[in-house]
Amino acid sequence: MLIGLLPTYGTIGILAPILLAVLRLVQGFSGGGEFTGSTSFISEYAPDEKRGLFASISATFTTLPSLLGGLTVFAAAAGFGAEAYAAWGWRIPFLLGGPLALVGLFIRLRMDETPAFRALREQEERVESTPTREAIRDHGRSILLVFAIASLSALGAYTLGTYFVTYLQEVVGFSNTTAIAANFLAFFVTVPLVPIIGMLGDRIGRKPLLLIGAPGFILLSLPGYLLASSGNFFGAIVGQLLVALPWSFVVSAVVVIIVEIFPTRVRYSGASIGYNLGYMIFGGTAPIVATFLVSATGSSTAPAIYLIVVALLVLPAIFLLPETRGYNLLRGADRAQPAPTTRPEAT
């Protein structure tokens, strides 16, 4: 909302872009921390046998707002006209954040702590006051494994959600409207796919999803980019879907593994460190690296090679991961434990 209220460069000079950068950083830090927290919150409420589904829905609903935001911007630009949109219409989508924040605050103030956290508080005299330090000291290996798999998920997410629109415009030659439409349609197919794969993970396990997704990137990234660069609108959609398909398997596994691999006492901290480092290093830089690779090599498929290399590097980490499907987050304060074969009745 504050971005929508910012004075222009003509009014306050260099302070305008500085304030814009600061506000975007606040958004980024908040969003990055919030994702692991919201996923942990949802997963700790979820039944053990449906945790993959619940966590995947959380992942889906971080993608959906991006699509809706893009449509809002598209509608505002089309409705106000290019001149009015550039002058003041661009502020409207940002100002909508104000009422949405109040809705979020209303919900937040009425939520209870999760059963897992309440159980931890009852088992121990005090909840860990420095969970970040304990997570790094006692669960460093898990943080590194989360970082590895989150890196691949991040690269796929930012390639699909950020870079492909630029790629279709600057490399393929599509208009802005055509590029956005092709990207939207590809994402529209992907959004419902993630929870379906999450349900599959509840049946076959988390590692099998990763062992489908990572090789999927290796096999499908190059054909995907070749189709996307063909200059054909339908080819652009199918090409993006070829990249989105393995990403759907990876993200469906990652969002639940980051919860299950850590005990309750350090779950939020451990998951946040590994996950956000992966997204910061490989996700945040994905558009810049991909643009540089195309420019440096002159090849329109260079970003696909980058995806393939990262997927190959992540494969060993996948084999080192424990299988966490069925872990009962309520049993034990020191570590997650496998759920009993017969699930007790809820009290």
How is this fold's topology laid out?
Blueprint lengths: L1 H4 L3 H4 L2 H31 L5 H30 L1 H8 L1 H5 L1 H12 L6 H9 L7 H8 L1 H31 L5 H29 L1 H23 L4 H28 L6 H17 L2 H12 L4 H19 L6 E2 L8 E2 L9
Antiparallel strand pairs: 1-2
Helix pairs in contact: 3-4, 3-13, 3-14, 4-5, 4-11, 4-13, 9-14, 10-11, 10-13, 10-14, 10-15, 10-16, 11-12, 11-13, 12-13, 12-16
Number of helices: 16
The helix/strand series, from N terminus to C terminus, equals HHHHHHHHHHHHHHHHEE
Question: Which range does the strand content fall in?
Answer: under 5%
The shape is globular
Roughly what is the average pLDDT, rounded to an integer?
Answer: 85
Rg calc: 21 Å
Main sheet, how many strands, which sense, barrel? Answer: 2 strands, antiparallel
CATH architecture: Up-down Bundle
Low-confidence stretches: 332-347
Helix amount:
over 70%
- Ends: how far apart? 43 Å
By CATH, the topology is: Growth Hormone, Chain: A
Question: Total strand count, please?
Answer: 2
Tally of individual domains? 1
Strand order, biggest sheet? 1-2
Q: Pairing-aware structural class of the strands and helices?
A: mainly alpha
